[in-house]
Write a structure and sequence with these properties.
9 helices, about 20% strand, about 35% helix, 3-stranded antiparallel beta sheet, 7-stranded mixed beta sheet, 10 strands
């Protein structure tokens, strides 16, 4: 699949417009993210994807399109705390969309069904793109297995890097930086994966190595 030809709307950062579209599915993502994630899924071939933050649903739809194009048997489970009318269509397209808050107060834990989903056999990819990405990443990184991946959106290495290389060029928002997740990465044996590519799409990707 030619990713570039199927991007039907690109982010307009000069006008602070964050939305992009893939095959007319609208997403709150930089248009740079599409090729990065397609290549990632093609290489990793995950058994399942857990997404926190369905929102407009366009990026979730994109992941589902990639899965089908790559002939992957990947189960996509996406959570959001707000119900939206288009979620029914997404469910009909084979995406498991659930409207509920899976996290306990102050991100002290999460529902057991989520832990069970992450810890199943096969490679799990966790996408942290909800309302508090720092809490999501630091909690869910405890549960991923060796060879699993955890990612977070609206990321930049630090404020200096954001101002110099990201803001106005790649993405106009930074909600998580390396210092926010450094301890969790150390404790849970996480290392950078395709750092340059993911940082170029305002994401961080870490792989559990042991």
């Amino acid at each position: 699949m030619n990713i570039e030809e199927n991007i039907t709307r690109k982010s307009d950062l000069n006008n602070n417009e964050s939305l992009s579209s893939f095959m007319n599915h609208c997403a709150q993502q930089s248009h740079f993210a599409y090729q990065v994630f397609y290549d990632f899924l093609a290489e990793v071939k995950p058994s399942r994807i857990l997404e926190i933050g369905t929102a407009l649903g366009g990026f979730t739809q994109f992941l589902n399109i990639c899965k089908k194009d790559l002939n992957l048997n990947t189960y996509i489970l996406s959570y959001d705390i707000h119900s939206r009318s288009w979620y029914e269509e997404m469910i009909n397209n084979g995406i498991d969309v659930r409207v509920e808050d899976i996290f306990y107060e102050n991100f002290s834990g999460c529902k057991q069904e989520v832990i069970d989903f992450i810890t199943k056999d096969g490679t799990t990819v966790v996408l942290c793109d909800g309302g508090y990405k720092i809490g999501e990443f630091n909690l869910l990184s405890k549960y991923i297995k060796r060879g699993d991946y955890i990612l977070a959106h609206d990321y930049s290495t630090n404020k200096e890097a954001f101002d110099e290389s990201v803001n106005g060029k790649i993405w106009n928002w930074m909600e998580i930086q390396e210092s926010d997740i450094a301890e969790a990465c150390k404790i849970n044996n996480l290392e950078d994966y395709r750092k340059r590519e993911f940082n170029g799409a305002a994401w961080v990707c870490k792989k559990k190595i042991t």
